[in-house]
């Protein structure tokens, strides 16, 4: 039986940051589940850069069903965690059930991959203090406030935590995360 990996997300998550790791990890042979505040069809978004804009734009993206509600998740059943970005982490960090899930992964030192605004979630459970991370560059001050050392790089590995800036860094992010996974949780 394949090891299970959990992706935690919600509406307004970046489409590519959910679906790329979902498909890549399944391709590798892992069983992947998506959890959200409730079981429903989630509405993802696409962030892109337009000439003349000071920041990214947001457009509707793909929809995808959540397999589980956060309250239904047994963290012990999962070998690793993926935390996509987009706007979802801004409101998800207030979800008590999700914070319990996040804390259990860090307490057990299980592999965690986070990208873009995803580190807002790990910061919400005080799991970045003393660690090296990257995130969407606009979050540099947030990462420092959470006690992390921010590095502007495609992928940063700190023990079992692998972080990336945004979807253009997917290849480096998943390459590094898969190294951690293969060493800790090999595919059967």
Automatic annotation (TrEMBL):
Every DJ-1/PfpI domain range: 4-179
Listed Pfam families: DJ-1_PfpI
InterPro entries registered for this protein in UniProt: C56_PfpI-like, Class_I_gatase-like, DJ-1/PfpI
Organism: Streptomyces populi
Name recorded for this polypeptide: Peptidase
Family: Belongs to the peptidase C56 family.
CDD domains xref list: GATase1_PfpI_1
Domain of life of the organism encoding this protein: Bacteria
């Amino acid at each position: 039986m394949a090891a299970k990996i959990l992706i935690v997300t919600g509406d307004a998550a970046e489409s590519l940051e959910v679906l790329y790791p979902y498909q890549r990890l399944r391709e590798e042979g892992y069983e992947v589940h998506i959890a959200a505040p409730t079981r429903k069809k989630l509405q993802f978004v696409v962030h892109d850069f337009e000439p003349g804009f000071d920041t990214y734009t947001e457009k509707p993206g793909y929809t995808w069903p959540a397999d589980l509600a956060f309250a239904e998740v047994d963290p012990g059943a999962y070998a690793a965690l993926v935390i996509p970005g987009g706007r979802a982490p801004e409101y998800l960090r207030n979800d008590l059930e999700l914070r319990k899930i996040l804390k259990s992964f860090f307490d057990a030192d299980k592999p965690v991959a986070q990208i873009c605004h995803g580190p807002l979630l790990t910061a919400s459970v005080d799991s970045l203090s003393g660690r090296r991370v990257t995130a969407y560059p606009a979050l540099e001050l947030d990462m420092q406030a959470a006690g992390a050392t921010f590095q502007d790089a495609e992928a940063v590995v700190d023990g079992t935590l692998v972080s990336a800036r945004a979807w253009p860094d997917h290849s480096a992010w998943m390459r590094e995360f898969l190294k951690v996974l293969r060493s800790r949780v090999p595919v059967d």
